[in-house]
Amino acid sequence: MTAARCRPREMPYSADRSPASCIDCMAWGILNGRRCTACTLWRNKHRGDEQPCAGCGRSALLRNHHCRMCWNQARTEAHATGSAGGRAIASRFLDQVGAFHQLFFAGMLNSRGASTTPPRTHNRRGAPRKPPPEPARHPPIRWIQLRLLEARRDFTRFDAATDADPGNPWLRWANYVAHQLGETHGWRRGMHDNVRRALTVLLSRHTAGDVIRYSELFPAIRAMDISVERVAEVLTEMGVLIDDRRPSFEVWLERKLDGLADGIRAETEHWLRTLARGGPRTAARKPDTVWTHMNNVQPVLLAWSQRYDHLREITREDVLAALADLTGSRRIQLLISLRSLFAFCRKTGKIFRNPTRGIKVGQQPYRLAQPLASTDIDQAVQTATTPAARLALMLAAVHAARPGAIRALLLEDVDLGNRRLTIAGCPRPIDDFTHQILLEWLDHRRTRWPSTANSHLLINQMSAHGTGPVSTIHFAKTQLRGQAATLERLRVDRQLDEALTHGPDPLHLSAVFGLDPKTAIRYAENARALLAAMIEEQDPASRDEPKGPNAL
């Protein structure tokens, strides 16, 4: 036993203090006054007059007619017999105390009893982990009692004292399924306990043929402050969950179509549903594409609904009039969405001719990207204080990675031994700065989520219990929000800086960052324009010189 363990916790060892004996329990050691720390706490907790002890007869402050020394001796004898520690076990030995007391050094007894307390058999702090549930399978079904009426259940009225049934075979099977999912996905100890509590509420009275609706479990589980998603995973694996939630797409579609004429509304709804879900010889589009198309055409369709009842009444002049007030990208986006709508209606036979046919979209002029100011980059670096924010900042500012590519990065894409990092299929060397940030994040990831089974490099509290990437909202709420140097601006600035430093060569940009040829050419043209502007600022006389195709 170390010397630090033998000293009183509240009184550090001091060479100018001589050891003494406690006047209450006669413990020998370095005391903080006339009494040891344990006796001082005993007197503060059990206030009153000193009375004769029923065990040893000494006059002292008592608890249940016995002094502190008798209680300690009772615990010592209880542990010596192999009994579990605790006041209830020690109380059985109080009648045997009185002949002698075992003396000890001050500070040797912990809060759980005498120094002979057997050591813990587990390596974790707190209570030991519960043993895993016994293997279980789908309960056998002999017959199913059909319900006369389908009534919704209110799990918020569950009473653990009267309604809990640990022996229910469906509950035992659910606990085993939850244990298997938790071990596979790396659930933490608290998550295992919370899911078991929720399953007890939901499946204690479950019988063959019963189903649980999402709208029924959500209020009860949310009131218990338990993750509904993890409980839903277990019930889905068992095949007893019915997701009766209304899809968010339906709510959004109903809100966007409100106010349109019946004929225009029906064809627009058919177009949007086909874009979202796909159809005959039509691939499904991403949700962002569907939202963008509807946001572009909604004001125009609302204006046309005041004059027309169907899309077949729309003429070429109406389309040109809607485009007349718009310029730039807004005009191009509206025309693209209208061409998609009318082409779909012409294909399905809802209209006879396409009023947008022959109207040119034109090439969208690209704006000249400007390099970020050094002050904006320094402010972004100072704002990124967490390991996750520094990792995202490094990947965007050093390796020009898009937010989607950062979300999709896997642990196997990071090869620290060979100093290689693969982003979107493009291998890149790991420099010393990248190596330092990656080590910092991996240490934090291993400490924060040691049992996670998620193979993605960047995870958070929500994705650590699953296997998918972090959500796009995770980047929207990053510490760089509101800064001039966002992740997208940092990515563009890194590629532009490469073109300015090593020359506007599209082949070099495509090889370094894995860019599409058209994108690499656009960055090269942007760099040439910036270099030409720099030359003009440095040499004003060159402005009057003729510029040919080989001026740079």
Overview of the molecule:
The protein folds into 4 domains: 3-96, no CATH class; 155-242; 267-347; 367-552, Intergrase catalytic core (hpI Integrase, Chain A). The chain is built from 22 helices and 9 strands. Helix 6 (169-185) runs antiparallel to helix 7 (189-203), helix 6 crosses helix 9 (228-238) and helix 20 packs across helix 22. It is mostly helical. The longest helix has 22 residues, at 517-538. The protein has a 3-stranded antiparallel β-sheet with strand order 7-8-9, with no helix packed on it. A two-stranded antiparallel sheet has the order 1-2. Strand 8 (420-423) and strand 9 (426-429) form a beta hairpin.
The biggest sheet amounts to:
3 strands, antiparallel
Instruction: Kindly name the structural category.
Output: mainly alpha
| DSSP strand count | 9
What's the number of structural domains?
4
Instruction: Tell me, briefly, the overall form.
Output: extended
Q: What do the pLDDT scores average to?
A: 83
Oligomer: single chain
N→C terminal distance: 79 Å
Could you say what the CATH architecture of the largest domain is? Answer: Orthogonal Bundle
What is the name of the CATH topology of the largest domain? hpI Integrase, Chain A
- At the first level of CATH, what is the class of the largest domain? Mainly Alpha
Query: How large is the radius of gyration?
Result: 37 Å
Strand residues, percent: under 5%
In which order are the strands of the major sheet placed? 7-8-9
Number of helices: 22
- Low-confidence sequence ranges: 1-16, 111-121, 546-552
CATH superfamily of the largest domain: Intergrase catalytic core
Determine the fraction of residues in helical runs and give it as a percent range.
40-55%
